[in-house]
Design a protein that fits this description.
Blueprint: H1 4-23, H2 39-42, H3 56-65, H4 72-93, H5 109-124, H6 134-146, H7 153-169, H8 178-187, H9 204-221, H10 225-244, H11 262-270, H12 273-287, H13 302-323, E1 339-340, E2 346-351, E3 354-359, E4 365-370, E5 373-377, E6 380-384, E7 387-390, E8 399-404, E9 408-418, H14 425-438, H15 443-450, E10 457-466, E11 470-478, E12 484-487, H16 504-507, E13 510-511, E14 514-522, E15 525-533, H17 535-544
Antiparallel strand pairs: 1-2, 2-3, 3-4, 4-5, 5-13, 6-7, 6-12, 7-9, 8-9, 9-10, 10-11, 11-15, 14-15
Helix pairs in contact: 1-12, 1-13, 3-4, 3-5, 3-13, 4-5, 4-6, 5-6, 5-7, 6-7, 7-8, 7-9, 9-10, 9-11, 10-12, 11-12, 11-13
Length: 545
């Protein structure tokens, strides 16, 4: 199998991203904010705190300095800048309520985990004098040792990796037994299907981030349990990507369009023959066109290039530089195109010219891909008395029945309420005051408002049936008599910071597929029937006419 196309595409993308990412960093050594990676703080001055999670950009800069094609002058400049980034991180980490991402005094777990991991790896490579950042590392180690994040596993695995690297560079900062205790709890977040819990379900975008961090854990500890977990995660991504020949996008629990490459490519050099074969096929599908405007990397904003995506790309290039060329065919398990995953609720079904994907635990979201054409159905939005109620919401409370990967599936449950929260000076003042007084204890409350919703309203029933001629979706909505009901767009109402990047599906949910929809009200019950015709069936009808 040939991977040069993927290597060339990622190299082109890297060269495009490099100057943009450097623009995010304060490059003036005489500035008090030298090394700060938050342009909104040091340059635009529209924020009065620096989002410390962005200090991962310093790690990207250091990795860029190791590229063979960079000049001695650039290498020296980048090394100085990466050391400045670590020093700036240390200065902020020592502050009260440190590890801010979205508001002052946040003491958030993601900024703690990801920034500490990046800076600890810089210290391990002597990109910065470890003693100069010891105060920040001491504070990070103390928090990472006593905190656990079960709802977003990628963050927890990143935090564990950060703690492992801190223990490697600063053995006295991590007590005996802490890593083993957290290891068991962290790996328990992985399901038998291979995915880790992300907001109640799987997300292969964040799962790829988790794989990156599992390799970091292995490099710090040489514990092969982390490689076993990474292999299971790779297999799940493989089983999702191969049938569709692309990522899952809005089929994911957290709506993530991107998939980071480093952990996947690492199997090329350090994996088993089976995992290497899966890695090769995933790379060929996901990254061969990575330089194109249509690729998901084109929609990633500068913030997330400064985040974990940038350094994952550079590290992937290091791997591909070692093994570019033709690979022999590798042995890996065949992927069944017709399959239902009980825990995740994913159903993949082969149809004429393509693949049908249903996310049952997301209200029965449907994606049909046929020979370059597509059609998506994200359910319904109910508008009543100033509120919105949506079926497009990931939840373990959806009931799934009548599952037949070659014929049908049924989903039922409540609709989830949503009301947009508008920012205002007063609300920001209350948030900052609450954060100053109560610290990270308000995070659970904020997540409950913006991310997790347990109680729904009304009832939604969806029956999806299909055969060799068409797909038929029959929907019933109960309990909203007189409400305005309209088809939902691609955008999810759940807040996920890295999601909601532009996609062509935002402009059109149907392309090249014939779709017919009929709706009616009867006795206060809304009923809709949506029919999708495969492209070849449309051609047959046209020819008959």
């Amino acid at each position: 199998m040939h991977i040069n196309d993927a290597a060339k595409g990622l190299e082109t993308r890297y060269k495009y991203v490099l100057p943009r990412l450097f623009s995010q960093i304060c490059r003036d050594p005489n500035d008090v904010n030298f090394g700060c990676c938050d342009r909104n703080f040091w340059h635009y001055r529209i924020r009065d705190f620096s989002s410390i999670i962005l200090q991962q950009g310093a790690y990207f800069v250091f990795l860029a300095s190791k590229r063979k094609d960079c000049s001695p002058e650039f290498r020296s400049f980048a090394r100085t800048l990466s050391a400045g980034g670590a020093a700036f991180w240390n200065k902020r980490a020592k502050m009260r309520g440190a590890f801010e991402e979205y508001y002052p005094f946040e003491s958030g777990y993601p900024p703690l985990a990801f920034s500490a991991l990046a800076v600890a790896k810089l210290a391990s490579e002597n990109a910065v004098d470890p003693e100069t950042i010891l105060p920040g590392m001491r504070k990070a180690a103390r928090q990472l040792s006593g905190r656990f994040e079960p709802q977003a596993a990628n963050q927890q695995i990143a935090g564990l990796a950060a703690l492992a690297w801190i223990a490697k560079v600063y053995p006295d900062l991590v007590e005996d037994g802490v890593l083993d205790r957290l290891k068991q709890k962290s790996l328990s977040l992985q399901t038998k299907e291979g995915w880790f819990w992300e907001y109640d379900g799987p997300d292969i975008g964040y799962l790829s981030v988790t794989i990156d961090c599992l390799w970091d854990l292995y490099d710090a500890t040489q514990d092969r349990d982390y490689i076993c977990a990474a292999e299971k995660a790779l297999t799940f991504i493989y089983e999702c990507v191969i049938p569709c020949k692309c990522g899952l996008g809005m089929i994911n629990a957290r709506n993530t369009d991107y998939i980071v490459p480093y952990g996947i490519t690492r199997f090329l050099t350090d994996g088993t023959p089976s995992s290497r074969g899966k890695s090769l096929k995933i790379i060929e599908i996901l990254y061969s066109n990575s330089a194109e405007p249509s690729h998901f990397f084109s929609s990633v904003d500068d913030r997330y290039w400064c985040h974990y995506i940038g350094h994952s790309l550079v590290r992937a290039l290091e791997i591909l530089d070692k093994c570019s060329g033709d690979f022999p065919a590798e042995t890996c398990a065949a992927c069944d195109a017709d399959k239902y995953f009980d825990l995740s609720g994913y159903m993949f079904s082969s149809v004429p010219q393509g693949i049908l994907t249903v996310a049952a635990k997301k209200g029965g979201v449907v994606r049909l891909l046929c020979d370059g054409c597509y059609a998506l159905d994200f359910g319904w939005i109910v508008k009543q008395k100033g509120k919105q109620y949506v079926s497009h919401w990931w939840s373990q409370n959806w009931d799934v029945s009548d599952v037949s990967p070659d014929h049908s599936i049924s989903i039922s449950g409540c609709l989830f309420p949503h009301r947009t929260i508008q920012s205002s000076p007063l609300r920001h003042f209350i948030l900052r005051l609450s954060s100053f007084i109560f610290g990270r204890h308000i995070i659970k409350l904020l997540k409950g408002i913006m991310i997790f919703k347990k109680n729904g309203s009304g009832k939604f029933v969806r029956k999806i049936s299909f055969n060799e001629n068409k797909i038929e979706i029959s929907d019933f909505i109960y309990g909203f008599s007189g409400a305005l009901i309209e088809p939902a767009g691609r955008t999810s109402k759940r807040h996920v910071a890295s999601a909601d990047s532009y996609h062509c599906e935002d402009a059109a949910l149907v392309s090249g597929i014939t779709l017919d929809r009929q709706t009616n009200w009867e006795n206060g019950v809304f009923h809709a029937v949506t029919v999708m015709l495969y492209p070849e069936k449309v051609s047959e009808i046209d020819n008959a006419n």
